Amino acid sequence: MSAVPELIDGGVRLAVPLLLASSGELVSERAGVLNLSVEGMMLTGAFAGAVGTAQTGDPLVGVVCALVAAVLVAALQALLSVTLLADQIVTGIAVNALALGLTTYGARLFFTTGRDVTGFDEIALPGLSRIPVVGPALFEQSGLAFVGLALAGCLALLFSRRTGIGLALTAIGEDAVSADRAGLPVRTARFGAVLLTGFMSGLAGAQLALADIHAFTDNITAGTGYLAVVAVIAGQWRPWPTALACGFFGIAQALQFAAPTLGVEVPSSLLIMLPYLLALAAVSGFARASRSPSGLTVPFVREARA
């Protein structure tokens, strides 16, 4: 494979987990809840998926384990930030630290001889996968990736501002008090949005462990969850720009592997830093050019009614 197709192929594969996680995070932020704990949800999902697969030999069981574990982490985040009204940023960081510690310890318990697991093989879509340059990258993925991307597309349509549920979610994220007065179930919607983030993040973690690497390693996400949050901001809280931001970050991550083939001679440490440097640049630029939901990170407290 030549340099450019290799870069595109690697960029798409690295962008898929980002896109899955960011699609759930987008819904949550539109409802007014910031989940920095996406990193912890993905990490827990990857670990549970690897353990479930290693214990049963069935990657489908691993996916179920990944989804359950990530949703449980999301439920903890929702309990803290939506029900108990704790600071969303602080709780997100705390959940990530807890997930990193538990999965690192758990890996030493469950993977005493090796951390390789069976996973999902790639599926090439007939005809489409033969398109020059982009065909293998876009249309030769694992079945899990195709399912996840289909779900992400459905979420983008379901929660768009052109649907009733999308309008309701937007109203809750902009002004939760007014939405509550209008009869919208603010807390239920926010709690459900966080759980949805956990579901999609668990799918992203399973994609990492069972489709991309076929193994579990300590801190396997390596900041991917944070990049998913940044992608939502860079995408100005809209689905398709968020997807483009995920692709951009995926290409940036792939550069560290494709740079030697491209003849680019730069320190490897700089290439590792590149996605996060670009993320900072993207946030600083797009944050000024766009407006976040007015109720983002603002706890909802119901007003007393006469």
Automatic annotation (TrEMBL):
It is a multi-pass membrane protein. It holds the Pfam family BPD_transp_2. It is found in: Cell membrane. InterPro entries: ABC_transp_permease. It comes from the Bacteria. Keywords: Cell membrane, Membrane, Transmembrane, Transmembrane helix. Its main location: membrane. The keyword Ligase does not apply. The chain crosses the membrane at residues 60-86, 93-111, 142-159, 191-210, 216-235, 242-262, 268-287. PANTHER family: GUANOSINE ABC TRANSPORTER PERMEASE PROTEIN NUPQ, SUGAR ABC TRANSPORTER INTEGRAL MEMBRANE PROTEIN-RELATED. This is ABC transporter permease. It comes from Nocardioides aromaticivorans. The lineage of its organism: Bacteria, Bacillati, Actinomycetota, Actinomycetes, Propionibacteriales.
